[in-house]
Structures are given as C-alpha cells and as structure tokens.
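help with this:

***
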Amino acid sequence: AMPSTGNGATPYSTTELVAQWNFNSTSGTTATNDAGAGTGGGTASNCDGTMYDFEYTTSRDEVSNTGWSAVNKKWGSGALMFDGVDDYISVPDSDSLDLTTAGTIELWAYKRVNNDYQMYVVKGPEDTESYQLMDNHATGKLELRWGDDHTPAVISNSIVPLRQWTHIVAT
C-alpha cells in the first residue's frame, strides 16, 4: 500500500523511497516512519525516530511552541512543533539513509523566528556519509552540506520566509 500524508494524499511515486515521517500523530515520543514495509533498511520501524527535549508529548497543544499540535498544522491530524532551541528527533543509523551519491530531502517547515542555524535534517557526524540541510540565520537561505567539508555544497537563491508554511526540497 502507498504511504499516506495523513490527509488521504499519497505520494506520486514511492520508487526508492527510504523513509517518510509525517509528524502528524497526536501523542507519544515516537516519530513513526510512515513509508511502509521495505523501507528504511528493511522495515518501516527501523527508521522510527525518538523525540528528545520536547516539553509535552502526552497530548496536543498542552504547551505552546513544543510538542504535538492540532492547531499549528499543514494537514492531517496535527503537526510536531520544535522549539528552535533543543527539541530534536533521533533516528537509528541505517545504511539506507546514507546519501553518498544522490538523494532527495523534502519537508514542510513553518519558521517562527530567525535565530542561530535552524537544522532541518542532520545525518551523522561530519564524515563522508554525513549531510545537513539547514537554514543560515545570517542570510535566511538554505544550505545543504555534504560529507566532511564544512562549506555548503548548495545554497538556495531565496530565503525561507517567517510565519508561513514553506515546501523545501534538496536534491
């Protein structure tokens, strides 16, 4: 079965889809990989993430700006709000997440403030298999960093706007 975004929409293609986190659950400390079986190193659960430093995860909208939300969402049953300070999700290392020659990272983000670097996706320590998709607070532009070089491999032409949903794709 095709994975769903949570509002009934399905991807155009799941060919070579490794993982898909919708972040639209209603409670708990697990960010479920919704891509389905056969992804993320063999099974969907191999790429489930664990949430860290969120103030409240028992239900939705109990604490503003961190945890599960039914109000601040793009679609589906809710969204996951990161406080921009220390909230993060850790996913177990999997060879299927190594983008050594090519790959695509895609997400929806709602940027509330411009402070420090906003890390959207980070894979591993700075070595040949690592990558980072981040928002540079000084310029507002996205940077894709690949491997053990601290220099951005790609810098976006436009900035990520504040207080609106933005579709971000890095290939």
